[in-house]
Fold each of these.
Amino acid sequence: MRVCVVGCGAVGSLFAANLAQLEDVEVCAYDLDQAHVDAINAGGLRLSGAGEVVGRLSATADAGELPPCEFGIVATKAMHTESAIAATAHAFADGSVASVQNGIGNEEAIAGHVERVIRGTTFPAGRLVEPGHVQWDVKGDTTIGPFEPSPAPMAEIERLAEACTRAGLSTQAVADARGPQWCKLIFNAATNPVGALTGLTHGRVCEDPGLRALVSDLVDEGKAVAAAQGIELDTDPEELIDHAARPEVAYDHKASMLQDVEARRPTEIDYLNGGIVRFGGEHGVPAPLNEAILALVKGLEASW
Amino acid sequence: MSSPGIERVCVVGAGVIGSLFAGHLGRVCEVSVLCRREKHAAALNAEGLRVSGRHAFVARVRAATDPAELPEPELAIVATKTTELEQAASRLDGVWPGAAVMTVQNGLGAEAAFPGRRVLSAVTFMSGTRHSDTHVEYILDTETWLGPYGETPLELVEQVAALIASSGLKARPFRDLRPAQWSKLIFNATVNAVAALTGLPHDFHFAERGKPGDLGDLVFGLVEEGKRVAAAAGVELYEDPWDMNVHATRRGSRHYPSMLEDVEAHRPTEIEHINGALVREAAEADVQVPLHTALCALVRGRESSWL
């Protein structure tokens, strides 16, 4: 089968390089970073850290070059979903497209351009070290399921999950993927901006009693918004947060939002805390601390 | 106090505010400066203190790092940052028993560092930029407000206010400074911490309201929390801190609050003395302040990131 990774940053690279290890999977990647594309085509896509892998795949910054694919895995930053899927949709005329992105609203954007959409949530994380080379910081599970308003067939979802799992990225296909997605959303919204605003790694945020209390308050608001929509969280985000704080898991991980802030790039705050505030507003659930965090990070972006 | 006049003033801590006081007062009375660093004192003794900006002159001052080397003043203006207040207080412990002390620190509670003395509470809104140990630029010529603390007579406050005004700075005496002090506390707790976390100078973003995530909504919420604490503490505010915020953002100065400068220079901030003071007052009055609590935690976390 042929899989196209749309947005080959840290998370996209973890999927692309690992899937490229499988003999029955052909991987291509679409990314706008020409230096990264050139490096991948010249020497392969290298992962180091949690796993040492070099994936051989074809990369391009020109969406017109993409062949028809059975699967798309969209891994861009959330604010680029719309433009990325608009450019690549032709490759998925007969395929199914999964989002493995942060935040909420990505599947809606994808469904504006392709018919068969997969709601996805992934926990592996890393960072781009140099063109063609990604540091793999954190291993973790991926959950995929049909995007309810415009679903991919369950058999296809299972096929993709099987391939990812075989490639070393444990992936489950489920009928309702909203629970895991909101669980990760709440996790990210409660921890990423706190790391971004303080400059602290996940483990250090969790060691600071004042910050850990703030994280819990943010989690509680997110849980209330999920509950109001009838979404059942599959795991308590608090458990994920404490688990990730362990030295052998993600103690030293700098949240992607902190990486963005340090590089003065736009963050995904609108799709994380902004999403909680928006869905909260639609369901009559106030989320004042998430709104405060949203304002602070947007202020930070405005300062550049 | 029947007024024998104030002829000698010592400024303790010559940052921006201390330098502005020392330079200006040096034109109307004998001014000494108690410095923390030898090099700073030597430079002031050699070169005097240059004021530029709204006023331009060089004042002669006498500086030292040991109060024993300075003449006993009638008034000591303690203008250190709150983070250095205790150290300043211990250096004045037992010296100059007759001198009154004026505190101009942000936050609450600086006055209590000088037990047994006549103390004047003050808050200042003037601002400047310190270009070197001997050169300060006077930027915002806004007022300094002062009032009596404890048993300090109002006449002394009026006398000090008149002295400051005669030196070319703006000063206003108050019978009770707490309403003004609390207005400024709420203003600083809100604006300084938001600036420190966002990196934004105090500009139009702070007054922008309406869309989700607009910074002005957060600022408004922080001010509302502060007002509830003031009300519970029985303080009627002198000015609405939200109006102070809007007014300041319209002045167009894009002022860099000191807490933002501290964060950028990786120095300890005044968070404990400003937001911390407000959160402690809130706890005593049993008022919930989740936004200020969050800001406190975030700024403390930020400080710990460079330790």
Amino acid sequence: MIEAAIKEPIWKIRLKLWLRSFRTGWELFRERRLAVFGLGVIIFFAVFGLLYPLYPTVMKNIFWKDDPFGYATFAPYDPIIGFDPDIMSHPSPPSLRHPLGTDPLGRDILSMIMYSTPREFVLGITAALITVVIGTIIGASCAYYGGVIDTFFMRLADIVMLFPSLALLMVLSAFIDLTLFRLAVIIGMLSGFGSITLVLKAQALTVKVRPFIEAAKSTGASDAYIIFKHIIPNILPLSFLYMMLNVTGAIFTEATLSFLGLANIRMSWGVVIQMAESSGYLMGASIGTYWWLWLPAGACITLLCSAFYFLGRGLEEIVNPRLRKR
Amino acid sequence: MLKFLGKRVFQIVILLFIYVTIVFWLLEAMPGSFLDKYLMNPKITPEIRENLKRQFGFDKPVFTRYLYYMKNFLVLDLGVSFSYFPRKVTSIISERLPRTVFLFVTSTLVSYAFGYNLGKRSAWKRGKIVDQLTTFTGIVFWTIFLPLLAIFNIWLFGVILGILPLNQFIEPNLWRHVSFSAQDVFLKLLLNAFVFLVVFLAVLIISKNFKTLIAKRTLLYSTLISFVFVSILTWILSGRAVYAWDIIRHMVLPVFTLTLYSFAGSMLVMRDTMLDVIREDYITTAKAKGLPDKVVRDKHAARNALLPLMTNFVISLGFTIGGGIITETMFSWPGLGRAYLEALSQQDTPLLIGLLVFTGIFVLIAHLVADVLYAFLDPRIRY
């Protein structure tokens, strides 16, 4: 019997264990309809963004069949430099040619939104990953070592939390060229050194006092080994949950900064709304008349942000036994 | 307790000094300066520019300026603003602070009252359709793109229904021939609201001692209604009711938007703590005693779940200025958030530093109050 068990390679056993825990997790997850909704919306946006390269080709074959030269010159479905010369005045309301209308510069809004979708994902996930990696490592080491390291990082978190993050990013935008990637890194670092370390440290402290840490120490495991192999895997579910919630924050911050015109991002959902605002289409009665300039982009930001939040809360109910059903 | 407080205050002072230092050097590191806009003006000769530089203090090295700033900071002097030249930063902040505070305190109070009630109910009916619906709406509003909500509200209430003004703080035409300032009227409104809050709390405490439910309710409602009546009468008699009403009308839309945006925060906190409390044994006991469901929910469960909500409330008051930037820009509300954005575009460094430092002090005090409140409300916690 024992022989047979050992013959099976270790990775296979791990895979099986992992699959089993994944399956129980999935069963728990499926009961939360709001979380499933969130996941559905995220998948929808992922597919929506990936379909972008097809969109200009399809439109070209339908509407620009007779005018390939015009298509090549004006690139009407380009999200940044596009222009449609056949329409009298821009912004034009939604039509078959432009399903969500055009903006004041004659660019196609649907193509702008589709083009930005993968970028929003990259921004949100990069920022959240950086946050979680920093927060997890610092939280685990603070809990494990205590003393000077703990005091230093906790005071650092206090100072970072003092800064209103939007206000700080506005100042930073004056001397850093906030491209998408830099913005993601800065947002990630700001929240990584901030409140998330407090939460993860508290969780790591409860792991630290468990007997298996003591056992690992007595067998001569090094500090780094204990932190990375024993403490971090135990706080990983919680950090994964915070990652989901941080994606929401990062996308929101980027949209706000773009909306105020402070980020150097060529195209994003926030930029679409900023374009409408800065050319004066969001005043008084024109708000309703030119609804396609702000509603689709704004709805996309809201939907994606809330989808990640729903997912995060659904996971929270699984990770946090306090919130599980009786 | 006193030892804990002393330690905390000591920590806060040190944190504040580090914070001010970081803010100062960060803003000094910004490229360009306020004087750059005179660079292209041919009427300003090099001598005048040198003179201006000296007057604004740019001729001294940065480190000397930093020492000066810290020296002034110790006596709570935040310097002189560049763009509003002879005015002091502290006077600009004290002029704009009441507006921001009024806006945020009102919306925070309303949204917490709202969130408390909704969270309580949705936790009680966990998993039912009510719970799902409130959580869904709450999260959608909580993660909504705030400018979108503001634009939508402006369009709906200002344009389509036409019942509320679109933005700004007052209606200029109305105020053209009056001798008093809007700030004056506004401060009196603020005072009125504050007195209302104090009276409300006092009556709440007094009515607790009454025996019957009817007596409690009569006292509460009669006092509140008569207070509102008396204050409205006072405003009418003083002849400034129209102007006060004008300010209130301009406040409705921002407050409504902020409330919609933020009620879910308190609702979700309340729901989560309530779910925790419901599992306690004393809730089962109360149910087994045959108490009505509503009494168990409101008296036994909700009151014990109130604690995290209270501390959350105090901490969220600290974040008024950072959160005010978007709302105040969308509604052209002349508060601190808008002052920050204006100062940033003008490179008015003293005002920027002043606003950030002031925010920091505000947040630190809010955290201290939250700690003290926690110890005060929860007998299990002793420092």
